[in-house]
C-alpha cells in the first residue's frame, strides 16, 4: 500500500499552499517527502469553493511567509499593493490614515483575486513530482492507528476505493470540515446574524492603491484596490438587509452603496456580480488529534471585518511546514540513510511527522495567535457593526484618539500588516 508522509484533505488556499510549501521543503534539504492532496472539486470549475469570486487582502507579513514557502514569486504578478489605508466612521469626523511609507515598507498588504490564484496553484500542483493530486475525490473512510492513518478514497473510476496510509492527515477542507466533524473536537460558534456582500466595482476616481474601511450603523464596508482600476467591495450588513441589497437591480444597488460609502472615490459607476456569504464565528479550540491536524478555515472561520481569515490560515500552514522541517532535520542528523521516495519516514524517537510531539509543538506555536485573532475580530465585529449611540460615540472617539496618538496608530498599522 502506498505510504504518504502527509495527506492533505482539501485543496483551497490553505491546502494547496501547504502541499506546495512542503514540497519546496523536500527540495531544499535533499530529502523527499511524499505528499497527497485530496480535493473534491475540479480546479477549472468557475464556482470552485476554495477559489471563487472573492478577493482577499494579504497582510505584508503574509508576503514574507509566502516568500519563505517559495510561493511569492508565483503570486507577485497577481497581487495589487495597498500603499495606504483610510479608516472612517460614517457621520463622524474621526478618521485614521495609514501610509506604507511611514513604516518604510513598499506596501501595507496586497490584494489577490482567489480565482486566478487557484488556477496558478493548480498548475504547480499538477507538475510537482512529490505531490499526488487526487482530484476530484473525497475521503470515504479513514482510521487512526498508533503509527499511521489509513485512508480510503471515493472518486471517479480510477480513484474510487483507492487505499493508502499516511503519517499525518491534515484537514484543510474548510469550515464544514468532514474530518473535523467526525473527530467531534471542541468548538466555539457564534452566529453574527450578518452577511457579507462582495462584488467588484468601478469608481470614477482612481483608487491609487488605497484601501478603505468605513464603519456605518449598518455594518462595515471595505473597498480594496484591484488591478485595472477596479475595487473589491466587502459590505457586511444584517441578514435581512443583505437579502434586500441582493435583490436590487444594479442602479439601485449602486445608489445604496454610494450613500453608505460616500464620495471618497467619486461616483461608483459599475458593479459586477454580487455574492453573499453568511457570517459566523466557528473556532475549533483544540484543532488536533492523533496524527490529524486542522488548518485554515477548517480550524477557524472568522468575521471578515479585519480581513484576517486567510492571513491566520497561512500562519498555520507556515508553522506546520516549519514543524515538518524540524522533524526532517532531526531525521537527517540521526540517520545514515536519508529518506527517499521509496522509504516512508519512520523515526525511532517518536518525534516523527504527525507524532504527538510534533503536533503538540505545532499547537503550542499557534494557540495564542488563533485565540488573539478570534477575540479581536469578534470584538471588532460587535463594536463596529452596532448602531447603539454609545458604541458609535465610543468608536468615533477611538478613531479620533488613534488619529492623534501615533503609538495607537502604529499598533493599528502593525496589526494591518500582520506583524506582531
Ligand atoms: C467576504 C469575505 C472576505 C474575506 N476577506 C479576507 C481578507 O481580506 N483577508 C484574508 O486573509 N481572508 C479573508 N477572507 C477569508 C478567506 O477567504 C478564507 O480564510 C480562505 O479562503 C480559506 O481558505 P481554506 O483553504 O482554509 O478553506 P476553503 O477556501 O473553504 O477551502 C476548502 C477546500 O476543501 C475542499 N473540500 C471541502 N470539503 C471537502 C471534502 N470532503 N473532501 C475534499 N475536499 C473538500 C473545498 O472544495 C475547498 O477547495 C474573507 C472571507 C470572506 C467570506
UniProtKB/TrEMBL annotation:
The EC number(s) this enzyme carries: 1.14.13.-
The protein's annotated pathway: Cofactor biosynthesis; ubiquinone biosynthesis
Enzyme class: oxidoreductase
SUPFAM superfamilies with a match to the protein in the record: FAD/NAD(P)-binding domain
Domain of life: Bacteria
InterPro entries registered for this protein in UniProt: FAD-bd, FAD/NAD-bd_sf, Ubi_Hdrlase_CS, UbiH, UbiH/COQ6, UbiH/COQ6_monooxygenase
Domain FAD-binding: 4-329
GO molecular function: oxidoreductase activity
Stated family: Belongs to the UbiH/COQ6 family.
Protein name as annotated: 2-octaprenyl-6-methoxyphenyl hydroxylase
Species name: Oceanisphaera ostreae
Gene: ubiH
Amino acid at each position: 500500500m502506498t505510504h504518504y508522509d502527509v495527506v492533505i484533505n482539501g485543496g483551497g488556499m490553505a491546502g494547496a499552499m501547504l502541499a506546495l510549501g512542503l514540497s519546496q521543503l523536500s527540495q531544499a534539504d535533499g530529502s523527499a517527502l511524499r505528499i497527497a492532496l485530496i480535493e473534491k472539486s475540479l480546479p477549472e470549475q468557475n464556482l470552485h469553493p476554495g477559489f471563487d469570486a472573492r478577493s482577499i487582502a494579504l497582510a505584508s507579513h503574509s508576503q514574507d511567509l509566502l516568500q519563505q514557502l517559495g510561493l511569492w514569486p508565483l503570486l507577485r504578478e497577481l497581487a495589487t499593493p495597498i500603499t495606504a489605508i483610510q479608516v472612517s466612521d460614517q457621520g463622524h469626523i474621526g478618521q485614521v490614515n495609514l501610509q506604507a511609507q511611514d513604516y518604510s515598507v513598499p506596501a501595507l498588504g496586497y490584494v489577490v483575486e482567489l480565482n486566478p490564484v487557484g488556477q496558478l496553484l493548480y498548475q504547480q500542483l499538477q507538475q510537482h513530482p512529490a505531490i499526488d493530486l487526487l482530484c476530484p475525490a473525497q475521503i470515504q473512510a479513514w482510521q487512526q492507528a498508533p503509527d499511521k492513518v489509513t485512508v480510503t478514497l471515493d472518486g471517479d473510476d480510477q480513484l474510487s476505493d483507492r487505499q493508502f496510509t499516511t503519517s499525518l492527515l491534515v484537514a484543510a477542507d474548510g469550515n464544514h470540515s468532514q474530518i473535523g466533524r467526525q473527530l467531534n473536537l471542541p468548538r466555539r460558534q457564534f452566529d453574527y446574524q450578518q452577511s457579507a456582500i462582495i462584488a467588484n466595482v468601478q469608481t470614477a476616481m482612481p483608487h491609487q492603491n488605497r484601501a478603505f474601511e468605513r464603519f456605518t450603523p449598518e455594518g462595515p464596508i471595505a473597498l480594496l484596490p484591484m488591478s485595472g482600476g477596479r475595487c473589491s467591495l466587502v459590505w457586511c450588513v444584517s441578514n435581512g438587509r443583505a437579502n434586500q441589497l441582493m435583490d436590487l437591480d444594479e442602479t439601485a444597488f449602486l445608489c445604496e452603496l454610494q450613500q453608505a460609502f460616500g464620495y471618497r472615490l467619486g461616483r461608483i459607476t459599475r458593479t459586477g456580480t454580487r455574492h453573499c456569504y453568511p457570517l459566523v464565528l466557528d473556532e475549533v479550540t483544540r484543532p488536533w488529534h492523533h496524527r490529524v491536524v486542522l488548518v485554515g478555515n477548517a480550524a477557524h472561520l472568522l468575521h471578515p471585518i479585519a480581513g484576517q481569515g486567510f492571513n491566520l490560515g497561512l500562519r498555520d500552514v507556515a508553522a506546520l511546514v516549519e514543524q515538518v522541517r524540524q522533524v526532517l532535520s532531526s531525521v537527517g542528523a540521526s540517520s545514515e540513510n536519508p529518506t527517499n521516495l521509496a522509504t516512508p519516514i519512520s523515526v525511532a524517537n517518536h518525534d516523527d511527522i504527525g507524532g504527538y510531539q510534533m503536533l503538540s509543538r505545532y499547537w503550542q506555536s499557534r494557540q495564542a495567535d488563533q485565540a488573539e485573532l478570534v477575540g479581536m475580530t469578534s470584538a471588532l465585529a460587535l463594536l463596529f457593526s452596532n448602531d447603539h449611540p454609545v458604541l458609535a460615540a465610543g468608536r468615533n472617539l477611538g478613531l479620533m484618539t488613534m488619529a492623534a496618538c501615533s503609538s495607537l496608530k502604529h499598533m493599528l498599522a502593525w496589526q494591518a500588516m500582520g506583524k506582531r
